[in-house]
Design brief:
By secondary structure, this protein is of the alpha/beta class. It has a single domain (2-136), classed as 5'-nuclease (Rossmann fold). The chain contains seven helices and five strands. Strands 3-2-1-4-5 form a five-stranded parallel beta sheet. α1 crosses α2, α1 (8-16) crosses α3 and α5 (80-88) crosses α6 (94-104). The longest helix is centred in the first third of the chain and has 12 residues, at 22-33.
């Protein structure tokens, strides 16, 4: 089973139904629901998704959505070691460094899925936009 690390923008696309991007996020999570792939994200992504969407989705509804999402995505904790590695990393974007460090911690990870490909160009892990990932996991 493929192991895929999901960046924050994919979570936001899914929950906010940001079209046309949400159709790929829906397909990715549908594959996870059907046990065709295994999804991972960082605890930072869950918190950031909540922060970004709380202006647009009622608090109780948003919390319920995020809670239910945990059934389909495994959360990698961001701890002090992760923060230290991120602060010392060569990556220009600290937040993306945190994401990559979390993804590196997953044994036999297949790829990172994000719409922000350029910020992950230094990744040692394959990085795919959601539309390409969907094609690969058909």
């Amino acid at each position: 089973m493929k192991k895929i690390f999901v960046d924050t923008n994919i979570l936001v696309d899914l929950i906010a139904d940001r079209r046309p991007f949400s159709k790929f996020a829906i397909e990715i999570f549908s594959k996870a629901e059907n046990k065709k792939i295994k999804l991972f994200t960082s605890s930072h992504s869950i918190a950031t998704t909540h922060y970004l969407l709380k202006k647009y989705v009622a608090e109780k509804e948003l919390r319920d959505i995020l809670y239910n999402l945990l059934e389909f995505v495994n959360v990698i904790p961001v701890d002090s070691d992760t923060i230290k590695k991120g602060l010392k990393s060569k990556h220009k974007d600290f937040e993306d460094a945190i994401q990559m460090i979390c993804a590196y911690s997953i044994e036999k990870i297949d790829c990172i899925v994000t719409r922000n490909i350029k910020d992950f160009r230094d990744s040692e892990i394959l990085v795919l936009p959601p539309d390409e990932l969907v094609k690969k996991i058909q």
